[in-house]
Amino acid sequence: MNIHQQITSGIQKALxxxxxxxxxxxxxxxxxxxKEFEGHLTLVxxxxxxxxxKGPEQTGDEIGKYLMENMPEIAGYNTIKGFLNLxxxxxxxxxxLNDIQSDKEYGTTKIENNAPLVMIEYSxxxxxxxxxxxxxxxxxLGYSLAEIKKATGNNVVKTNxxxxxxxxxxxxxxxxxxxxxxxxxENSGKKGDHLVGDFYVLFDKHYKSELxxxxxxxxxxxxxxxxxxxxxxxxxxxxxxxxxxxxxxxxWEMMNTWVYAGFDETYKQMGVNFDKxxxxxxxxxxxxxxxxxxxxxxxxxxxxDKSVWxxxxxxxxxxxLLLRGDGTSVYMTQDIGTAxxxxxxxPINQMIYVVGNEQNYHFQVLSILxxxxxxxxxxxLVHFSYxxxxxxxxxxxxxxxxxVDADDLMAxxxxxxxxxxxxxxxxxxxxxxxxxxxxxxxGLGALKYFILKVDPRKNMxxxxxxxxxxxxxxxxxxxxxxxRICSVLRKADEQKINIPEKISQTIPISEKEQNLVQLLSExxxxxxxxxxxxxxxxxxxxxxxxxxxxxxxxxxxSILKETDNDKKLFRLMLxxxxxxxxxxxxxxxxxxxxxxx
RNA sequence: GGUCCGGUAGCUCAGCUGGAUAGAGCAACAGCCUUCUAAGCUGUGGGUCUUGAGUUCGAAUCUCAACCGGAUCACCA
Length: 597
Hints:
about 600 residues; alpha/beta; 20 helices; globular; RNA-binding
């Protein structure tokens, strides 16, 4: 039972005794006291004026007096306007800190044997181009959400659905055959995903000039598109692929292997991973079967051209295509098939799709379709919908070459971290290996924190030119504070100071120290909120508050020079636990925190 | 046009189950390295919380309307 709950129940008793009213927990507005006022927790007393039949000040004083007399936790109170500020006794904070100190799983919940299983799908790349900034946000959010779900007591399966089939893949394959036969990642020195992406671009280039040529021969744009020989070849390739043509499939497999090797490298650098990977080439057939079954059951209907549709007008939506007239599948078909396979493979309690908000409609439809098909989890699927990452000049557009590549971005961040560190002389005492590790941790920490601190639902702006600050509300600032705390603890250790398991409850502690303990005591709740609201940003902003507060504290005191031994121990223990909160919190964001930097 | 999401300082963002004088960082300016790491700290300036109504003791927060921006409504994925 935390301090908040204790006080709440005390207030309930007070209201009952004073005014004979019973009030539910939710009716009691107990918030953190604002900095300008004295106290820790503030009760809004306006709601009780009717019952007390007295003015705000008087009512507040009455409640405060009662609490003071009946609760040892309350050390003082004051009423300002309609707000009763309560002061919590010093020893309560110390005992809270003692609890945190001994809590081996501070901020996390143990995963029980019968814990629910949450499957989280994220990343979901296409195999025809490398990962870009949008994927970075997706990957970071997905990975972090998985960590947060684990920390709140869920079993988690991280999954990735690779979009490895369709006309777009054939474009890259065709371009390679025509203009790149023999080129491989090995002999070109290029990462496989980039190489394949280049051929995709090359196809587009040739396709465009073919269209221009045709249009010069007085064709309309539409006619030109219909008469393009390149596009016809690509479509023919797709047909052959679906028919299992050995040569096409072999080419497809070779190029996919290149791409996957490239992706693996990117994922590894980013620090994300998956427990199970699905491929659309292996799930779309399952989807077709599901749709056929639905058709037989009368859930869907067939048009004259044999295409299959779902009528969703009853749900306030449109008609939705599920199978083309030629029997080939569309996006939705594949997602149905993938969902079926997943639920066959795992006893999933909750399915979370981390997919951009441009697909809100798609998931609304998917949920309804799965429900109609009789999957009882369909209705409850969660679409973790996040906003786009925009550049200062607007959206990223591959045609205009304004796409920010994930590999380039990470490399640049690490390089900037290196330059900054060198300038500050931080790497002087490090071996090259140590320096490389530290610089990577900082560069990636800056990138990850920058992206995760923003509310996922919102579109966000990323300015590559200004890159990312290392000052202020940033990953490096938090990492730096952690490194400094570690340094204090190392020095304390050198001086043979042992931090005890428990601190005496009689030490007088300052207001700032009380604030810090209060913040620490709120951490577990923050993690739970982040889990419920699917928002790593809550944790990021909480950690920043904590670190900012600690830095201010740090400049007021020199811990190791404190002459009062008990106080010194208290401050060391406080610092130690703040470092623990930083490590845990940043860990949930997938951000490493170094011990020195 | 239908549906969904957003609009808070010059910029990037917090705050949103209604509560006190709306907060950080960046940028600008002024200070602080005999102090456990200055990637830090302190101070100054900067706001019609898009607008208008409503709900009430009280609205950035809830409701409605308008305006602006984005997404989506494909036999693309």
